[in-house]
UniProtKB/TrEMBL annotation:
Keywords: DNA-binding, Phosphoprotein, Transcription, Transcription regulation. One of its GO terms (molecular function) is DNA-binding transcription factor activity. GO terms for biological process: phosphorelay signal transduction system. This is Helix-turn-helix protein. Residues 3-120 form the Response regulatory domain. It comes from the Bacteria. InterPro entries: CheY-like_superfamily, Homeodomain-like_sf, HTH_AraC, HTH_AraC-typ_CS, Sig_transdc_resp-reg_receiver, Tscrpt_reg_AraC-type_HTH. Signal peptide: none annotated. Residues 445-542 form the HTH araC/xylS-type domain. Pfam families: HTH_18, Response_reg. The keyword Repeat does not apply. It comes from Cohnella phaseoli. The modification 4-aspartylphosphate is found at residue 55.
Length: 542
């Protein structure tokens, strides 16, 4: 809340201002009053108010002299002149003294409110500007760091010619005009266990990993004054570290970069328990070649996917294509046919043959994902068509979830292990669906011939099992699996639905309806009715 000092040699004026003006409603409070300018100056220095409202003509020191003394302390301090004479000379003099507000005695409360609110608004605006400037000064380093990350992220996604680079922006960010750069891509491996981690928890792990990367770099590069590093959170699982040097990156700098990169991987594994793939591009000269080094680091990541995790792999240019790297399309086609024709043993054997094929397992991860996505879709379609009449509305959603899970595989080995598990599940599901047709028919008979037709009788599951010549325990387990509820629960719910129909007619007493739907005890009927519907039969009837 802003504060005001009132100054006037007429105590009657002071009392009137204190009594009749709603200061607190305007967001201000009075911190003192003075009868002359000299006393007011002492109070000003002591209590440091935000606003001074003063009379002009006072003994010892008038209002203009008081204003001059205050402005020597704070040239921008707001002073409101309160004068009992309608004198334009005073108004002009007030302007020359830096006074912007001038009230004639006796001022109305509305005039005082208008002036005070205007001064308070100007004070608040001034404070906001000062706070904003102070905040900017305090956070200048953060602003520059944010600008640098956006700048380097842009260079990782867009190719620029040298003349197209934003040189003024580079200078403002205090970056060297000439650099050598080397890109390191670090890819977090979201294993099956990590896949089940909630998105919030994963983002916390990712945030912690980013902090570790920066801490390791700060420590490792402390003894390398010519070498700096910029960390870009490139995607949900990838970080890109750009090693920058105003000097040429020689053997010593390259060794430091490799040591720092290895230390990052070791620290993340130790503290965050997350495995990583690391790919290091070659050294290039110029900001315009950052993208080249980054693409090389991505290529090195592909090598890492086929080998051990938690290591840094350098980019190595490929010459002639390797022999035996063509995808075994004929084998893949045979496997798809076996899946669609539901030749389960053939499909299992062909998958084992495919995952042992060197050309298949050494293919790029995107290529493997494409083949596996097709196989998963084929398995799902086959399994679903077998159970076309089953009550499973979540089939399409399930396929989407499988494909999302497949796409999260970060390595070829992880993907093939995941596919092994899905193949086994798919084969088991198809077998179960083939057997399930008979099971559904059996439960349909129990519901249609016994529950719906004999609900008014005191019939038990044992009696039903005996009549259809099946084991009682098997029938109980099968009924719950297909309907989702135990027999007794399903049977009672059906009876209560019939009871509700009878209650709605208004023609029967509760005890009569109890007997009509198969309950011999009306009290027990009421208990079951309330447990299922939430109200008693009598309340439902009303």
């Amino acid at each position: 809340m802003n504060t005001i000092l009132l100054v006037d040699d007429d105590q009657y004026v002071i009392d009137g201002l204190l009594k009749h003006v709603p200061w607190e409603d305007m967001g201000v409070r009075i911190v003192g009053t003075a009868g002359d300018g000299a006393q007011a100056l002492e109070l000003f220095r002591e209590r440091m108010p935000d606003i001074v409202i003063t009379d002009i003509y006072m003994p010892k020191m008038d209002g203009f002299q008081l204003t001059e003394a205050i402005h020597e302390i704070d040239p921008e301090f707001p002073v409101v002149i309160l004068s009992g004479f309608d004198d334009y000379a005073n108004a002009r003099k007030a302007v020359t003294k830096g006074i912007q507000h001038f009230l004639l005695k006796p001022p109305s409360i509305s005039e005082i409110e208008f002036v005070v609110r205007e001064v308070v608004q100007q004070l608040n605006e001034s404070k906001e500007r000062d706070e904003l400037l102070a905040s900017y000064v305090r956070q200048q380093d953060i602003v520059q760091r944010s600008m640098r990350e956006l700048f380097f992220r842009d260079l990782l996604t867009t190719r620029y010619r040298r003349e197209e680079l934003p040189w003024q922006r580079i200078a403002f960010m205090e970056l060297p005009l000439e650099i050598d750069v080397q890109a390191l891509t670090l890819s977090l491996i979201r294993t099956e266990g990590r896949t089940r981690t909630s998105e919030r928890d994963w983002q916390l792990l990712r945030f912690g990993t980013g902090n570790i990367i920066r801490e390791v770099l700060d420590k490792r590069l402390e003894a390398c004054p010519d070498l700096a590093a910029e960390v870009v959170a490139y995607s949900d699982k990838d970080f890109v570290v750009l090693f920058l040097s105003a000097a040429q990156l020689g053997d010593a700098a390259s060794a430091n970069i490799m040591e720092a990169s290895t230390a990052i991987v070791d620290s993340v594994l130790q503290y965050m328990k997350i495995s990583m793939l690391g790919g290091l591009g070659k050294s290039w000269t110029g900001y315009e070649h950052i993208l080249d080094s980054f693409l090389e680091s991505q290529s090195a990541i592909e090598t890492a996917e086929m080998n051990d995790w938690n290591r840094i792999y350098r980019f190595a240019e490929k010459t002639d294509p390797e022999e035996g790297r063509l995808m075994p399309l004929d084998l893949i086609r045979k496997l798809n046919d076996a899946i669609f024709q539901k030749r389960l043993q053939d499909a299992a054997d062909l998958w084992q043959e495919l995952k042992a094929d060197r050309a298949f397992v050494s293919s790029s991860l995107p290529g493997l994902k494409g083949v596996c996505a097709g196989l998963i879709s084929a398995w799902w379609t086959s399994a679903w068509s077998t159970a076309a009449h089953a009550a499973d509305d979540g089939a399409e959603t399930g396929l989407e979830e499988l494909l999302v899970s497949l796409n999260r595989s970060a390595t070829a080995k992880g993907l093939i292990d995941w596919m092994d598990e899905q193949m086994s599940r798919a084969i088991a599901q198809i077998k179960e669906n083939l057997q399930g047709k008979k099971s559904h028919a059996l439960i349909d008979r129990v519901i249609g011939d016994f529950i719906e037709k004999c609900y008014h009788q005191n019939i038990t599951l044992e009696e039903i099992a005996a009549k259809i010549h099946v084991n009682r325990n098997y029938l109980s387990q099968l009924f719950k699996k297909i309907t989702g509820e135990p027999f007794v629960t399903y049977f009672n719910k059906y009876r209560i639905e019939k009871a509700k129909e009878l209650l709605s007619t208004g023609q029967y007493m509760v005890y009569e309806i109890s007997e009509m739907v198969g309950f011999q005890n009306s009290t027990y009927f009421s208990q079951v009715f309330k447990s299922i519907t939430g109200i008693s039969p009598s309340e439902y009837k009303r």
